[in-house]
Amino acid sequence: MAIFPFILLKSKKLKSDMEIINHEKIHLRQQLELLILPFYLLYLINYLFNLIMYKKHDLAYRKIIFEQEAYRHGADLRYLKNNNWYGWIKW
């Protein structure tokens, strides 16, 4: 979980999982793009809208625009270095 400026992990062994770390770093970038607080508001609104629409937590979570960008590019460790600012807008 990314709560600016920290990445919180369930266990120490996840520190070595570069894909998870990159996923969370993408969230930190998203938070910066929206000046932090609006990110959390949009995240929550998007989740609640998706929950009403899909009626399943897992699907509602996966359809959050910010999660779609982070999951799609989490394996690309150069994604953030390539200056892909506001990539979540595509979703």
Short overview:
The chain is mainly α. It is built from 4 helices and 2 strands; from the N terminus they run E-E-H-H-H-H. A hairpin with a 2-residue loop joins strand 1 (2-3) and strand 2 (6-7).
Detailed description of the structure:
The chain has helices at 18-33, 37-54, 57-62, 65-73; strands at residues 2-3, 6-7. It is mainly alpha-helical and 91 residues long. It has a two-stranded antiparallel sheet. Strand 1 and strand 2 form a beta hairpin. Helix 1 packs across helix 2 (37-54) and helix 1 (18-33) packs antiparallel against helix 4 (65-73). The longest helix has 18 residues, at 37-54. The mean pLDDT is 95.
Layout of secondary structure:
Layout: E1 2-3, E2 6-7, H1 18-33, H2 37-54, H3 57-62, H4 65-73
Antiparallel strand pairs: 1-2
Gyration radius from CA atoms, angstroms:
13 Å
Order of helices and strands: EEHHHH
Structural class per helix/strand content?
mainly alpha
Shape from CA axes? globular
Mean pLDDT: 95
**Can you tell me the residue ranges where pLDDT is under 50 for at least 5 consecutive residues?**
none
Q: Please summarize the sheet with the most strands.
A: 2 strands, antiparallel
- Number of strand segments: 2
**Fraction in beta strands:** under 5%
Percent of residues in helices comes to 40-55%
Q: What is the number of helical segments per DSSP (H or I, 4+ residues)? A: 4
What is the rounded distance between the termini? 20 Å
Give the strand order, joined by hyphens, for the main sheet: 1-2
